[in-house]
Specification:
The protein has about 230 residues and is of the alpha+beta class. The protein is built from 8 helices and 4 strands. The longest helix has about 35 residues.
C-alpha cells in the first residue's frame, strides 16, 4: 500500500461549514483528500499568500503544484466546481442547463443567506463567546432563531416543494450546501424544524448521508470540548 499523500489538500478546519462542504463533495465522489488545519484568526504567511480573501477553505492540488500559489484555489464554490470537473462521477451538478443553474443558485443562497444568519447570528455569539471565556450571547442567538431564520426556512420549504432534492431530482451541490450551512447551527443549538416538515425531512436525509455526517462528527468533537450540549433557543 502506498503512503503517498493525496493530490487534494483542504486547508482549513471542519468547524467551518465551507470546509465541510468541500469535504462532503470529495467523499461523495470518492476523491481522496487530506485536511491540513489553519488558524484563520492568526494564519501563517504562506496561507495569506494563497488565500486572497483570508478565508478558509483553500484547496491545493498537488498534481498541479506541491507548493506556492500555483495549484491552489480559494473559495468553496470555486473549489467544488473544480472537483466536479476533475472527478465528474457521480455528478453533483445537474447536466440539464436550467437544473444546473438552479443548483448553483441554491448553493449561493446557502452561502449568502443561510450561512450568515446561522453563523453570525447563532454559532459565533455562542461558540466564540465560550472559547473566549465569556457567557454565550443567547439573546442574539434566540433573536436570530426566532426572526431571521424563519423567512429563510419559509423560502426553502416552498422551493423544495414535494421534491426529494432541491434541483434535478438527484443529490447536488445545492443539497450539500444547504445542509452544511444549517448544520453549523446544529453544532451549538437544537434545530427543530417542525413548522417546515418537507424541509425538515430533507435535512434529516442529508444529515444521515455518510459524506455529510462524517465531517460534521469531526466538527462536533471539537465543539463539544468547549460546549458539552447544544442550547435550546426556543
Amino acid at each position: 500500500m502506498s503512503d503517498a499523500p493525496n493530490d487534494l489538500v483542504i486547508y482549513g478546519s471542519p468547524i467551518s461549514p465551507f470546509v465541510r462542504k468541500v469535504a462532503s463533495v470529495c467523499l461523495e465522489k470518492g476523491a481522496g483528500f487530506d485536511v491540513e488545519p489553519v488558524n484563520v484568526f492568526d494564519p501563517p504567511q504562506w496561507f495569506k499568500d494563497i488565500s486572497p480573501m483570508k478565508r478558509i477553505p483553500v484547496l491545493r492540488d498537488r498534481a498541479v503544484a506541491a507548493e506556492g500559489t500555483d495549484g491552489t484555489i480559494a473559495d468553496s464554490s470555486a473549489i467544488c466546481g473544480y472537483i466536479e470537473a476533475k472527478h465528474p462521477n457521480p455528478a453533483l451538478y445537474p447536466a440539464e442547463p436550467f437544473a444546473r443553474g438552479r443548483a448553483l443558485f441554491f448553493e449561493e443562497y446557502a452561502d449568502t443567506m443561510l450561512a450568515p444568519a446561522g453563523g453570525l447570528g447563532i454559532f459565533r455569539p455562542i461558540f466564540f463567546s465560550i472559547t473566549k471565556g465569556e457567557a454565550p450571547d443567547l439573546e442574539t442567538a434566540r433573536e436570530t432563531w426566532a426572526t431571521k431564520l424563519p423567512p429563510v426556512f419559509d423560502y426553502l420549504e416552498s422551493a423544495l416543494g414535494d421534491n426529494e432534492f432541491f434541483s434535478g431530482n438527484a443529490l447536488s451541490i445545492a443539497d450539500i450546501s444547504i445542509a452544511c450551512c444549517l448544520m453549523q447551527v446544529s453544532l451549538v443549538a437544537e434545530t427543530p424544524l417542525d413548522k417546515w416538515s418537507r424541509f425538515a425531512a430533507h435535512f434529516e436525509r442529508m444529515q444521515a448521508r455518510p459524506s455529510i455526517a462524517g465531517p460534521f462528527a469531526q466538527a462536533g468533537k471539537a465543539v463539544r470540548k468547549a460546549l458539552p450540549e447544544p442550547f435550546d433557543l426556543t
